[in-house]
Amino acid sequence: MPKTIFLVSCVKTKLNRPAEARDLYISPWFKKARAYVELRMKPGDKWFILSALHCLVTPEQVLAPYEKRLSQNSSKGESERWAGAVWDKLRPIIDNGDRVVILAGQAYRRTIIDRIRMCGAYVEIPMDGLQFGPQLEWLGRQLDGH
Questions:
Q1: pLDDT of 113-141, one tens digit each?
Q2: What mean pLDDT, rounded, does the chain reach?
Q3: Contact call for residues 57 and 63 (beta carbons, < 8 A)
Q4: What is the Cα–Cα distance from 121 to 52, expressed in whole angstroms?
Q5: Could you tell me which residues come within 8 angstroms of residue 34 by beta carbon, excluding any fewer than 6 positions away?
Q6: Pick from 32, 10, 34: which is nearest to 109 by CA?
Q7: Domains of the chain
Q8: Rounded distance between C-alpha atoms, residue 92 and residue 89, angstroms
Q9: What are phi and psi of 25, to 5 degrees?
Q10: What is the mean pLDDT of residues 19-37?
Q11: What are the tens digits of pLDDT across the range 53-72?
């Protein structure tokens, strides 16, 4: 049975102490993205956080606060190493026919999308092309409409 895997990018604003990843990131964007994902999950679905430092983390994984981010200006080598580490953790979880919903900017998704598609999964980027403010609005509408 195909499942949905949600990938949510990390954010800069974090607690000042170690916490489960789902609680470490405290920006309004992340809180809305988390609520959106948790609202849409069905039995068998999974969600993960794309971390600039830790690659792919489960929501329950305890992390200390850190300062690192991927950007459009990250070197190709750095981006490829990060994507390879994400893929090493993600590949055993994705099956042919799964749906992967990515709530992350270009820097976090550009190096992993082709790998996901090559294993037969469908990639969905619901906020593709939206800037930060419109993303917050879109997430708010999705949560209000439920």
A1: 999 999 999 999 999 999 999 999 999 99
A2: 94
A3: yes
A4: 23
A5: 8, 22, 59
A6: 10
A7: 4-139 (3.40.50)
A8: 7
A9: -85, 120
A10: 98
A11: 999 999 999 999 999 888 76
Token pair for 123: 């990639």
CB 126 within 8 A of CB 138: yes
**Alpha-carbon distance 56 to 7, whole Å?**
9
Rounded Cα gap, residues 138 and 57, in angstroms: 25
Give 146's pLDDT tier (boundaries 50, 70, 90). low
Evaluate if residue 73 carries a pLDDT over 80. no
Q: Across the strands, what pairs with 139?
A: none
Query: How many Å apart are CA 21 and CA 2, to the nearest integer?
Result: 26
What's the whole-model pTM score? Answer: 0.94
DSSP-assigned letters across all residues of 37-63: HHHH--TT-EEEEEETTTEEE-TT-EE
Q: Are 95 and 3 in contact (CB under 8 A)?
A: yes
As given in the structure block, the two tokens for residue 139 are 């997430």
